[in-house]
Design brief:
Radius of gyration: 22 Å
Order of helices and strands: EEEEHHEEEEHEEEHHH
Oligomer: single chain
Number of helices: 6
Distance between the termini: 41 Å
Strand order of the largest sheet: 1-2-4-3
Structural class: alpha/beta
Number of strands: 11
Helix content: 25-40%
């Protein structure tokens, strides 16, 4: 049966299914639809408690699924549009002044400020892309230094790439490339890609020895992979 529940000024609709089971479960499908599967004869009070205890998670998962199924969303570069940076979404504020020359992007901890001579969407997109590339280079280089103590060899070259098929690469010359969109990911995810590529300095293939080394340095690396799998579609400019 389809039911609804209002809590914290928001109303959700969900499918309530009674099944032969011992525990209560909440499921959100790829379209954002919510289903509660509960044991037969479960009191309504217990169902309500479950919903309200999981309220933030339910709404976050549902919203993410609905947004994802809508597909790619073009950024409009109006003040207040949100962009990912280090795993969080921040609004942009565009400032137009002839004295800004070629323009720049800066981050003050709360907003991404774009200073530009002439407000042009193509130029704004170019500036944001350049900002991400610059930040990615700084972040990757800093994180490599952090994890270098785990390795006897060092990268010979570090480059930033626009390759859409991979987050990073490392060849047999220990030359590494990293996708600039990594600057949009949480620092822990950037760390994983850095560790992954640094492990290729020791093991070029994805064999057991490689994954053992990755797991030794970062035991929860699968959670970082899961973030990229779930969020890569939002990493756009």
């Amino acid at each position: 049966m389809i039911k609804e529940h209002t809590y914290q000024d928001r109303t959700i609709h969900y499918k309530l299914t009674f099944k032969k089971r011992k525990s209560l479960g909440i499921y959100v499908d790829v379209y954002g639809n919510i289903e509660l599967r509960v044991p037969r004869e479960t009191p309504e009070k217990q169902i309500v408690e479950l919903i309200e205890n999981k309220w933030d998670w339910i709404n976050r998962k549902s919203d993410e699924s609905k947004e994802k199924t809508q597909g790619f969303k073009e950024k409009n570069y109006e003040d207040g549009e949100h962009f990912l940076y280090l795993g969080q979404e921040y609004p942009i504020v565009v400032s137009e002044d002839a004295g800004y020359g070629k323009g720049r992007v800066s981050f003050d901890g709360e907003v991404l400020k774009i200073d530009v001579a002439v407000r042009d969407e193509a130029q704004l997109k170019k500036l944001m892309t350049r900002f991400y590339k610059q930040q990615c280079k700084k972040l990757v280089e800093a994180r490599i230094k952090v994890y270098q103590t785990n390795f006897k060899v060092k990268p010979r070259k570090i480059s930033i790439s626009s390759n859409k098929k991979t987050w990073g690469t490392c060849n047999n010359l220990r030359e590494m490339t990293f996708n600039w969109k990594l600057a949009m990911a949480p620092l822990t995810v950037i760390d994983y890609i850095v560790v992954h590529e640094m492990c290729h300095m020791v093991h070029l293939n994805h064999d057991r020895s490689f994954w053992r080394l990755v797991g030794k340095i970062m035991p929860d690396y699968e959670a970082k992979e899961a973030w990229l799998s779930a969020s890569h579609w939002k990493m756009v400019v």
